[in-house]
Amino acid sequence: MGAFLFAGLLSANLQAACEVDRYDETATLEKIYDGDTIRLTDGRKVRFIAINTPELAYKDRPAQALAVEASQSLKQMFQTSKRVHLLYGVDRKDRYKRLLAHVFTEQGKNVAAELIQQGLGFAILVSPNDGLHECYFAQEQLAIKRKKGIWAHMDYQPRQANELTREMTGFQRIEGRVEKIGHGKKWLWLDLAPLFSVKVLRKNLKYFEDQPIELLVGKRIRVRGWTAYYNGKLRMSLSHPAMMELMD
């Protein structure tokens, strides 16, 4: 079997694994904001579960690399039909009151899985919305292997924790060695550098049973998520081990 044919069959099998046999709702698409957010005709906004795509230009902030391509790819998926199937997460809304859902075309194609496979977005997992996550991360591995999109672009290489500056907020992949772990009433803190810490809610420690947080001291890890600067540090929340890789 030729390499390209095999890759095509593998891709088709992975896409099939990202499909479902039921939906919570079917609606109509009105507007595409970017690669991972849409608006329905009734005015509700939907943020896709499991993916983060590059940001389009906003005010004085320039577009990130491949942001336009992600948005265009999404538009193409809904070119023939604006019907949208939604499968909601356990948490149905985010802090911006957007619906959180797995989104499918009228034909049943998983939109986030397709974008991830094209290398136009990162697979993410924010607990408790962990449905289909194994499929999404498998799609990402396929994109990495093929060096598609973000996986071949210098802008999306991991940053080193000890080289961060306070301006490096937003979605990041950051690599460093866990220097120490701090304990709070609700959180555990993993210090990777003087300027950078990862925080894990105690209620989410149940997801880390196979990789206990306490055993990470001295280990080199790579984490992904959103950073914010406050109290003199860049901080990232981590709610599931799928967002962390052991590097040694």
Automatic annotation (TrEMBL):
<dbReference type="Pfam" id="PF00565">
    <property type="entry name" value="SNase"/>
</dbReference>
<feature type="domain" description="TNase-like">
    <location>
        <begin position="23"/>
        <end position="153"/>
    </location>
</feature>
<dbReference type="InterPro" id="IPR016071">
    <property type="entry name" value="Staphylococal_nuclease_OB-fold"/>
</dbReference>
<dbReference type="InterPro" id="IPR035437">
    <property type="entry name" value="SNase_OB-fold_sf"/>
</dbReference>
<protein>
    <recommendedName>
        <fullName>TNase-like domain-containing protein</fullName>
    </recommendedName>
</protein>
